User: What shape does this take?
Amino acid sequence: GSHTLLNFYHPETDEDLESSCRSWADRKVFSVYVAPRSLLVLKQDLYTKYLHGIEEVESEPVSGRYVNMRPEQLQEVSLERGTRYSLTIRHVPKATKVNLLRLGR
Assistant: This one.
């Protein structure tokens, strides 16, 4: 798969909803460079207090604005993004006791 940049955002506030909503760019907090064939586990504040997403772009500049890149990696280059496959697994505590096997009948 390809690399990607995973962006983290502040969620909308009640104030945002009452006025003209802030854009995603205004709410962006930081970005994480995700290398090809990598695994990310989001937990604690990163999982519960921020929204996250990946912009739909064909290439992206790599610069010093990513929190997980070392100084020697910070060359001003543009990386072409290819296909990346993502698998999401979430642990959800007991929320309901629905028999999922019966739903398909």
